[in-house]
Amino acid sequence: MPVKTESIQDTTSTTDIDSQINYDDAIQYWSGVEATVDGVLGGFGESTSVPKADIVGSNTFLRKLKPRFSNEPGKIKYGIDFGAGIGRVTRDFLHKVCDKVDLLEPMMFS
Fold first, then answer.
1. Main-chain phi, psi angles of 104, to 5 degrees
2. pTM over 0.70
3. What does the alpha-carbon distance between residue 36 and residue 15 come to, in Å, rounded to a whole number?
4. Cα–Cα distances in Å, from 62 out to 40, 58, 109?
5. Which residues lie closer than 8 Å to 86 by C-beta, 6 or more apart?
6. InterPro entries, alphabetically (predicted)?
7. Quick check: 6 pLDDT over 60?
8. What does 64-84 look like in DSSP terms, one character per residue?
C-alpha cells in the first residue's frame, strides 16, 4: 500500500507569530490562576502523572544536551527558571542539576 505524503509549507514568519502575542491577555490569564501545582498545570497537579512526566522530559532533554556543556572541574553550573511561577521546576529539577539557580517571574502572586 503506498504511503501518502503531504508537503506542508510554512508561510508564517517569526515576526508574524510574535505579533500575535497579547501580553495583556497572558497577564490576565495568569492573574486568575491559583498559585499551586494544580493551578499552574491547568488541573493536572500532584494527583496526576503530569508533574513527574514534565520533570522526566526535562531530564531527558538535558541529558541530550549535556555533551555540549563545558564540564570543567570547579566551574559553577548556573541555571535560570524563566517564568518560574511557584518554583516547581526549580524545586523538582533545576536545583538537582545546577549549583545556583535564579528564578525570573514577571507575575506577582499573593
1. -125, 115
2. no
3. 34
4. 22, 6, 29
5. 35, 36, 37, 40, 109
6. MeTrfase_NTM1, SAM-dependent_MTases_sf
7. no
8. HHGGGS---TT---EEEEET-
CA distance 108 to 27: 10
Of 97, 87, 99, the C-alpha closest to 62 is: 97
b/e for 17-35, b at 16 or more Cβ within 10 A? eeeeeeeeeeeeebeebee
Terminal Cα distance for the chain, rounded: 59
* Gap between the Cα atoms of 109 and 6, Å rounded: 46
Decide: helix, strand or coil at residue 99.
coil
pLDDT per residue over 51-68, tens digit each? 999 999 999 999 999 888
Name the residue with cell 536545583. 95
What does the alpha-carbon distance between residue 28 and residue 24 come to, in Å, rounded to a whole number? 6
Whole-number Cα distances in Å, 109 to 10, 31, 38, 41, 91: 38, 8, 15, 16, 17
Say how far apart CA 108 and CA 110 lie, in whole Å.
7
